[in-house]
Amino acid sequence: MARGDQHRGQLKRVRLGSLNLFNTTDDEHVQEFNVTHIFRHPNYTQPVLYNDIALVMLDRSVEITEYVRPACLATDAYAPNTNLIATGWGRTQYLNPRSETLMKVSLDLFSIALCKQAYVSVPTRQLPNGISEDLQICAGDANKEKDACQGDSGGPLQIVDQYNPALYYIIGITSFGRSCGTTSNPGVYTRVSHYVGWIEEIVWPNEK
């Protein structure tokens, strides 16, 4: 179900500005940081699949460059029906090796009704209330084998601003799915808009 790598241990470092995990040719633009603290959502409790979100604190400020830029957080629960973009270094197919190069895929929004139907057989210990429209977004493709996969967990589900193509909004975080790339079987993403208040309390605690 989960789309992460469960055996790599605690997150210790963050690397920004790199497209290839195993090649150093783009290191001129890379920034590396130590992780000083991880803020897991207080309501996340395994094996339940809700509230699958965390923040990491870095040991210094990020330098904004042509290769390292911020994305906005979606504050509106609304999401467009098409042109959602998922990115990551996960597997390109189920049980395939992980990709060395950052990949992206364009996905469509699935209704909560269709998503609930796709995950109706998931044990109640993981989804006691089924798919939650408040907490989760479902995205995939009804006709093509397009999806996130193992190794993509924690990556963004984003949209491009319609007025400024250089500006991205993060609407979801890759969370879990069933297999990979099966048509009409969407992946599930944490709905970022639901957690903006919690994020603000962590990142800007003195500004309220």
Descriptive labels:
208 residues, mainly beta, Thrombin, subunit H, six-stranded antiparallel β-barrel, three-stranded antiparallel beta sheet, 28% strand
Largest sheet: 6 strands, antiparallel, barrel
Report the span from N to C terminus. 38 Å
Sequence stretches where pLDDT stays below 50 over 5 or more residues: none
Number of domains: 1
The helix content is: under 10%
Radius of gyration: 17 Å
Tell me, rounded to a whole number, the average pLDDT. Answer: 91
CATH architecture: Beta Barrel
- How are the strands of the biggest sheet laid out side by side? 5-6-7-10-9-8
In DSSP terms (H or I, runs of 4 or more residues), the helix count works out at 2
Describe this structure in words.
By secondary structure, the chain is mostly beta strands. It has two helices and ten strands. One of its GO terms (molecular function) is serine-type endopeptidase activity. Belongs to the peptidase S1 family. CLIP subfamily.
Summed up:
With 208 residues, the protein is mainly beta. Helices cover 7% and strands 28% of the residues.
Q: What's the SSE blueprint?
A:
Blueprint: E1 13-16, E2 31-40, E3 54-58, E4 72-73, E5 84-88, E6 103-110, H1 112-118, E7 136-140, E8 156-160, E9 168-176, E10 187-191, H2 196-203
